[in-house]
Amino acid sequence: MKFNYPDGRKFKQHTEPSNLTTTGAKKVIFGDRGMRLEDEINESNKYYRAHDIAVIYKKPTPIQIVKVDYPKRSKAVIKEAYFRQASTTDYNGVYQGHYLDFEAKETTNKNTFPLKNFHQHQIDHLRACEKQGGICFVIIKYVTLKRYFIMPAQKLFVHWEAQRNNGPKSIQLSEVVNDSYEITANYNPTLPYIETINKLIESRKEK
């Protein structure tokens, strides 16, 4: 089956690396192995689910089917489809009774994080979840610097509104440091972001 992006680019299936050696022995999995941020979060989520810590999944991207073959009357085979633009954020789930909703973004920039990486519908979705008491945030990865940050949604909203009012179109690294919690890539889980979620929950209790 062939999948294409809306701009015509062909979709290449990403194959998850195995955590077993050729002899069947378990390999030690370390964080930051040149993986995409999405893969690091997905690995972490598998760990959290396997250990009954949290149930968090990546939201599937809506697909527009454009070509279907019917080799048999009782069967339909999808031959071509396109990924639609996601309408909300990347991830959601539940942790100790708290609803989590967050976006994951990465940049190769060293000193800035472009706000164009976000879309208005994502900001609107995060605002709506916040109003319902959800724990909302964004995980930012500076690929070149190998640094990871969790920025609470409320902090992101401030920068978003500023750029909408002719303010800076990017967030400076120093601002990201001040407005976020920095986390370090690890192993089991690859990206231990739940530790920061505990801090976000505690900060709410203090208000």
What features would you describe in this structure?
The strands form three sheets. The chain has a six-stranded mixed β-sheet, with helices on both faces. Strands 1-4-3 form a three-stranded mixed β-sheet, with no helix packed on it. It is α+β, with helices and mostly antiparallel strands. The radius of gyration is 19 Å and the shape is globular. Helix content is 28%, strand content 31%. Strand 3 (63-72) and strand 4 (75-83) form a beta hairpin. It has one domain (33-60, 87-205): Trna Endonuclease, Chain: A, domain 1 (3-Layer(aba) Sandwich), CATH 3.40.1350.10.
CATH class: Alpha Beta
List the total number of helices.
5
**Strands side by side in the biggest sheet:** 2-5-6-8-9-11
From the 3D structure, determine the CATH topology. Trna Endonuclease, Chain: A, domain 1
Which architecture per CATH?
A: 3-Layer(aba) Sandwich
Order of helical and strand elements: EHEEEEEEHEEHEHEH
Q: Which structural category fits the helices and strands?
A: alpha+beta
Which residues form runs of ≥5 with pLDDT under 50?
12-32
How many whole angstroms does the radius of gyration measure? Answer: 19 Å
Described by the principal axes of the CA atoms, the overall outline is: globular
What's the rounded overall pLDDT mean?
Answer: 84
Report on the biggest sheet.
6 strands, mixed
Number of strands: 11
Q: Report the helical percentage.
A: 25-40%
State the distance separating the first and last CA atoms.
Answer: 52 Å
Instruction: Indicate the proportion of strand residues.
Output: 25-35%
